[in-house]
Amino acid sequence: MKRFLIAALALLFSHVVFAQGLPFPGPGLGPFSTSPRSTFITSTSQGACTTCTFTSVNIGTAASDRIVVAGLSARVGGVTEAITSVTIAGVTATAIAQCKDSVTNSTISSLHGALVTAGTTGNIVIVYTVGTVDVDLGVWTLNNTGGVVTPFSTMTNCVNANPMAGTLTSNPGGAAIGMIGTGGAIAFTWSGLVKDFGVNPSNAYSGASLSPTPGASVSVSVSGAGTESALATASW
């Protein structure tokens, strides 16, 4: 009798799902997915700074498992640069992936993340060791990671090729995020990840993401990269 009831309920559930035109839930699919999901929220930039404060940034919908990912890219005009700290809405962020260009170390791109469960806006503060020429910020949220910032995998490219490319190992049905910066006013074209934003004043920065990821790897390529380029990507 118990088996009969379970089978009947399963059949009824499948009829309801398909009657609504929804895909039957599977790994990384459907409205009941528990695979990691990324959402692009916003991007912004500012000029010269050492302690760079972005005020009242949109950080998306509050959730108990929300990871806020800050994609950062900065230029410092030929001087070796490093990031001392990043805070997101008052929470110290963890470095996820980071890359400095291999020519002069003057372009630095990174992904930092923090578990921020409350609020829809917050300050994002980045402290650099040397004052920047300019810095760009992209913001994404991640859900369904169990509140864990640590990625499934990372891939960086700092060799100043055009295109900047690499293979990012991915969690099938999961999420991936990337950030790139370079010297010069360039319009980037992404392949493998979907471009979320791009700015190209005196220097160029761009961010991209993909959710769900289609398989065990994502071939990421960014064309239009100039000299002193740095690409940082991660998957969950």
Low-pLDDT regions: 1-32
Gap from first CA to last CA: 42 Å
As a percent range, the share of helical residues equals under 10%
How are the strands of the largest sheet arranged?
A: 1-9-3-7-6
Characterization of the model:
It is a single chain. The protein has one domain. 8% of the residues lie in helices and 50% in strands. It contains 1 helix and 17 strands. The strands form 4 sheets. It has a 5-stranded antiparallel beta sheet with strand order 1-9-3-7-6, with no helix packed on it. β4 and β5 form a beta hairpin. The longest helix has 18 residues. The N and C termini lie far apart (42 Å). 47% of the residues are buried. The N terminus is likely disordered.
Chain-wise SSE layout:
Elements: H1 2-19, E1 37-46, E2 51-58, E3 67-75, E4 83-88, E5 91-92, E6 94-100, E7 107-115, E8 121-128, E9 134-143, E10 153-157, E11 164-169, E12 176-183, E13 189-191, E14 194-199, E15 203-210, E16 217-223, E17 230-235
Antiparallel strand pairs: 1-9, 2-8, 3-7, 3-9, 4-5, 4-8, 6-7, 10-17, 11-16, 12-15, 12-17, 13-16, 14-15
